[in-house]
Specification:
- By secondary structure, the protein is an alpha/beta fold.
- It has 3 domains: about 30-165, 3-Layer(aba) Sandwich (Rossmann fold); about 185-410, ANL, N-terminal domain (Rossmann fold, 3-Layer(aba) Sandwich), CATH 3.40.50; about 415-515, ANL, C-terminal domain (GMP Synthetase, Chain A, domain 3).
- About 30% of the residues lie in helices and about 25% in strands.
- It contains 17 helices and 27 strands.
- Helix 8 (about 190-200) crosses helix 9.
- The termini are far apart.
- Its EC number is 6.2.1.3.
- Pathway: Lipid metabolism; fatty acid beta-oxidation.
- Keywords: Ligase, Membrane, Transmembrane, Transmembrane helix.
Length: about 525
Amino acid sequence: MLTYKYRNFYEMVEHNAKHRPKETVLLVDERKVDHLRLKQKVDTFARFLEFSSIKNGDKVALIIANSEEFIVSFLAVTKIGAVAVPLNTFLKREEFEYILSDAQAKLLICSPEFAGETSGLLEATPVEKIVWTGHYDKLDERNYSFVEITGSMETHEQLAKAPKLDDLACIIYTSGTTGKPKGAMLSYRNMLSNMVSADEVFQITAKDRFIVYLPMFHSFTLTVMVLLPLYAGSSMVLIKSVFPFSNVMKQTLLKRVTIFLGVPTIYNALLKAKIPWYFLWFNKVRLFISGSAPLSEHALQAFNQRFKRATLLEGYGLSECSPAVAVNRSQKQKPLSVGPALPGYEVKIVSEEMMELPLREVGEIIVKGDCVMKGYYNRPDATDETIVNGWLRTGDLGKMDAEGFLYIVDRKKDLIISKGINIYPREIEEVLYKFEGIDACAVIGVKDESNDEEVLAFIQLKEEVESIPEIKLKQYLKSHLANFKVPKHIYTVEELPKNATGKVLKRVLKEHVLSGKFPLK
């Protein structure tokens, strides 16, 4: 049973402003923002939202690049009991239009660099006003300047109705790998449960410093990299973009970062990069944490050999669980495992009939606990399919050992069934990753004329490698895998399609195959 010292996010801001007012909370380039100044900005922007008739329960969308403005906006929106809807900034106009309409967003806060893709949204969606976080030269009665608002309005601290633990705080739209994206409704309890559990496991203190360079709209970044530091009274280094990556490394060293969170593509890049000796010697990182997609066993071992003074811990989560579910511990971790469930959560492996399976047997991962979302916004049918008797069906396949360590086998939707036999793409990918010269890979199943599935692999080569003969790769795979698991075709591509957090978009690869871009014969 988890206990909560805060009912909402604003109470965290209030607590820090009262107990450590002059301590730095944000480092943005050469600028520092202390806890008291952050609270003042949140109060000021919250006042504007109230003047703009934003009420408890109203939806406010954010299309904002990583910045102080994102944090201030998110905290101000939730302070007054409105619901924040952070949107993927990589989307296109039609996708923005769909989500803003689906969420019934009343107000949009937007970075000017997205003005092109958001043009016309005032006419096409329920959005009544847009607040621009930077310079925008078309200000009028429906377009406002964030800088002018936060620089001119009075602050206020009185709230007509403070948000409670079970109130809706945020709607995170899933990436929509199949069909239209769905909005996962997360309450304060959902997201705070992640902070309480992570704080206990990682033993975060006010002396810790996080680096935030992954997109803030993503649930992993938002909860674990932005809100968790606020919960613990820590500080964070804000980086607008992961590119150039050399800047991320430079800021990690110069600003004495202690907690570094990333995704497998980042850690694979770190393994390839020529890192100067003084970074390895003088950096202060004590924890590297990986989420979003599985790390290969090879990458995990190589990373721990290179960064000997820190620990790389792999975890597992999904937006519908706010998002963290399980993570390895500094005291004990197991290769290829994502660790035990976080404190306060339950994880089981079940059959199609939702019956619990024996240890080490593969089945669907289900999760129960305060992290489980309230449901999908305006999608009761999808909610009923996903949450059964309080258990969230993740759609991921996994197995559990006797110590409660969880192993992700694959996405249920990625499972390949060939001639009645289950084939797990990740198993094949793990073997491919060990082949010298392969930088990234993905394995998919595509149905043939007989409605059976054929195994296909896509590989991305390391920069210095010109080519790898397909026959050589197949011979290698046959020496490590049963013949039925060996892909019928192995295609070499310049770059695998990925989403904002580095997950390979297997749906796109399947579309390419079905459209004839990659011949099956």
